[in-house]
Amino acid sequence: MSRKKAGELSVFLFCSISLFAQETKSIQLKNEKPSYSLKNYYINKLMDDRADTSNIGSARSSFLSSKDQPLNLENGVCRALTKFIRGNLEQDSAASPIDLHISQFMVENKGNTGLKTEHELTIGLAYYDGKRKLFENSGGGTTMTTGDPSKLIEELIRGSLTTLLHQFDEWWFNNKIYYEEAKTKPTIRVEVSLEQEQDDSTLISYSQKRPLALEDFRGRPDQSSSAAAVTYSIVILKYSSARMGNNEIIVDVNVSVEFRKMKSWCRAENRNEETLAHEQLHFDISAITACELVDTIRKFKFTPDYFPLELERIQGKKQRELDEMQDRYDSETKHAIGPAVQERWNRIIKEKLQSTTCFHS
C-alpha cells in the first residue's frame, strides 16, 4: 500500500476569514509529526461549522492579570489546522476520503487555583462521507500555570487533535464495511394501480357504473346456511419487480376488486331488490378496503430487501379489517332484515365511497 504525506493531498478549505483586534493573542501550532499515521481515511475537506469563528475563547496571561485576553490560532482555526495537517500528518491517499467538520473549538478560563490559572480546552469534530454524517467525537483537557498559558494550550491542542483523528481512524476501520454496503444497496420505487377491467365473463370488476344485478348470482345456494344470499367479493394484490441498471428496484403492484359470479348465490324466494341492495353493500365494502390498501401502499416506505414481506403484511392487515367489517355489517343489519340499521349502513358506505379517490362515476 502506497502512502503519501498530507501535503501531497488536495485538502479543500472552507474557512471564513475573521478580522480580530490587535490585542488578540495568536497561537501558532508547532510543526511536529504525530507518532502514527492515518491508515483508513484521509481528510478530503476541512470546514469550520462554528457560529463564531473570530476566536477560540480567552486566557489570562497569569494569575496576577486582571482580565482575559482573546485567543485564536494563527490565521484562524480552519487555516491553522489545515496547515498543521498538511505539514505533519501522514495520510493514505488510497484510503476513504472523509470531510472533517469542526463543531467546537473553545478555550475557557476556569479561574485561579492557588497561584495557578486553569484553562480548559474543548474540541469537537464531526466526520462526513459527503452529506452523510458518520461519527462525532470530542476531547480536550486542562492546563494550569502561573505564567502565560499559550504554550501549554498549544501542546494540548495538538495532542487532542491527533488523538481525535486517531480515534476515528480506528472506528472507521471497524465500521467501514457496514457503511460501504449501505451505499451499494439498491433503491426501491413502488408503483401501485387499481385494475378495473376483467376479461373473464364469470368475474365483475368493481365499478360504480356497473352495480350488481340478481342474474349475477349464479352459484348454487348453500343449504346448510341460513343466509338469503352470499356475495363472494375479494380484494386481490399482485406484484412484479424488476431491477434496473441504475441499481433501482421497480415494483409494480396491482390491486383489483372482484365479484365471483359462480361462487355468489341468492335463494329463489329472496331474489328481490331489498336483498340485492344489501349484497351490493358487501361489494362496496370490498371496494372501500381496496382503496385503503392502495393508499397505504403508496404512503409506505418499502425496503429493497423486505418489500415482499412488507406487502404481505399490509395486505394481511387490510384483509382482517375487511373480514371484520363484513361480519359487523351482517351482524348489525341481521342479514338485511333490520331496515333501520340497514339504512344507517347505506349512509355510512355511501359517504365512504364518496371520500375515496379510486372509484368515481
Helix fraction bin: 25-40%
Taking the alpha carbons of the first and last residues, their distance comes to 70 Å
Stretches where pLDDT is under 50 for at least 5 consecutive residues are 1-13, 17-22
Largest sheet: 5 strands, mixed
- Structural class, please? alpha/beta
Oligomer: single chain
**Proper CATH architecture of the largest domain:** 3-Layer(aba) Sandwich
Q: Count of helices?
A: 5
Radius of gyration based on Cα positions: 36 Å
* SSE sequence, one letter per element: EEEEEEHEEEEHEEEEEEHHH
Gross morphology is elongated
Q: Numbering strands along the chain, what is their spatial order in the largest sheet? A: 2-4-8-9-10
CATH T-level fold name of the largest domain: Rossmann fold
Class of the largest domain in CATH? Alpha Beta
Overall number of strands: 16
Q: What is the average per-residue confidence, as pLDDT, rounded to a whole number?
A: 89
What labels describe this entry?
Rossmann fold, disordered N terminus, 31% strand, alpha/beta, elongated, 361 residues, four-stranded mixed beta sheet
Topology:
Blueprint: E1 4-5, E2 12-14, E3 25-27, E4 41-48, E5 57-59, E6 69-73, H1 77-88, E7 90-91, E8 96-113, E9 116-129, E10 132-145, H2 150-184, E11 187-195, E12 203-205, E13 229-230, E14 233-243, E15 248-260, E16 265-266, H3 273-299, H4 307-333, H5 339-355
Parallel strand pairs: 2-4, 3-6, 4-8, 11-15
Antiparallel strand pairs: 1-7, 5-6, 8-9, 9-10, 12-15, 13-16, 14-15
Helix pairs in contact: 3-4, 3-5
Would you write up a description of this structure?
The protein folds into two domains: 4-184, Rossmann fold (3-Layer(aba) Sandwich), CATH 3.40.50; 187-355, no CATH class. It has a five-stranded mixed β-sheet with strand order 2-4-8-9-10, covered by helices on one side. The relative contact order is 0.10. It is elongated, with a radius of gyration of 36 Å. The protein has five helices and 16 strands. Helix content is 33%, strand content 31%. The two termini are 70 Å apart. It is α/β, with parallel strands linked by helices.
